[in-house]
Design brief:
The structure holds 2 protein chains of 2 kinds. Chain A is an alpha+beta fold. Chain A is built from 2 helices and 10 strands, in the order αββββββββββα. Chain A has helices at about 1-40, 170-180; strands at about 70-75, 80-85, 90, 95-100, 105-110, 115-120, 125-130, 135-140, 145-150, 160-170. Chain A is elongated. The longest helix of chain A is centred in the first third of the chain and has 41 residues, at about 1-40. Chain A folds into 2 domains: about 1-45; about 65-180, Cupredoxins -  blue copper proteins (Immunoglobulin-like, Sandwich). Chain B has a domain at about 25-55. Chain B is mainly α. Chain B has 2 helices and no strands. The N and C termini of chain B lie far apart (about 70 Å). Classes of the chains: A alpha+beta, B mainly alpha. Chains A and B meet through helix 1 and strand 8 of A and helix 1 and helix 2 of B.
Chain lengths: ~190, ~55
């Protein structure tokens, strides 16, 4: 009889430890998800707030992603907007110029298949889905150069799909913008 | 004898000993799982605080 009681006591201990471990696991997952949610909402990193459409069939003919409108522009309200397209197997423009320490809106879409846009040494990481505009508010703290590879396998030439981002001083950027409406470092 | 005796045939003393060990709780398992979990969570926080946040806009 005493052996049976001991047996039940052992089971009770195991069940208690399992319950505590399960509770701890749930708390850890809750903390991690909570932190990711907080940074996502607080710094507006993801997800995108609204869905915008762009017809890939007419992308090159009409709308904001026509070739003459691609690159970096200063809008009427003074904000800096970068527009870019991903297609097999390049970005247009291939090299983007942005001012340092300035809020920049990055708007991009795909002309064919799903591409990814990732700027190294930053958290900038977007999917470019045909038919949709991907928008992300970004800020580059210091001047420098970053590479911008396609991070989503998009076909046999995927490994050669690289762009560049050149971050320049604010004053140098104003000088570049004075002479033209849209700029990129390919020009 | 290749097979160990089934629990039914185990001497009464052994069973009592096993019950006593089980009653004491799985301290070793908690230590191993706790250390492993602490390492994973610490690495997550290290990447989050030292890599992800400094790269934020």
């Amino acid at each position: 009889m005493s052996s049976e009681t001991d047996h039940h006591a052992g089971e009770a201990v195991a069940a208690r430890i399992e319950r505590r471990w399960a509770t701890l696991s749930i708390v850890i997952v809750g903390v991690l998800v909570g932190m990711a949610t907080f940074i996502g909402i607080h710094q507006v990193t993801m997800p995108q707030g609204r869905v915008e459409l762009a017809n890939p069939k007419t992308l090159h003919l009409t709308g904001e992603f026509v070739e003459s409108n691609l690159g970096t522009a200063v809008e009427a309200d003074g904000s800096v907007v970068v527009r870019a397209i991903g297609q097999q197997y390049s970005f247009t423009p291939q090299c983007i110029v942005v001012p340092a320490d300035t809020p920049v809106t990055l708007r991009a879409t795909s002309a064919d298949v799903v591409h990814g846009l990732l700027i190294e040494r930053t958290n900038i990481n977007l999917m470019l889905v045909p038919g949709y505009v991907s928008e992300l508010p970004v800020r580059f703290s210091t001047p420098g150069e970053h590479v911008m590879p396609c991070q989503e396998f998009c076909g046999i030439g995927h490994q050669g799909m690289w762009g560049r981002v050149k971050v320049v001083e604010k004053s140098a950027f104003s000088g570049m913008m004075a002479s033209r409406r849209r700029i990129s470092c390919v020009d | 004898m290749i097979n160990s005796p089934s629990p039914e045939n185990a001497p009464h003393g052994d069973e009592a000993k096993i019950d006593e060990i089980v009653r004491a709780g799985p301290e070793g398992a908690i230590a191993v799982a706790g250390i492993a979990t602490a390492i994973v969570v610490a690495l997550w926080f290290a990447f989050y605080l030292l890599v992800f946040l400094p790269r934020s806009p």
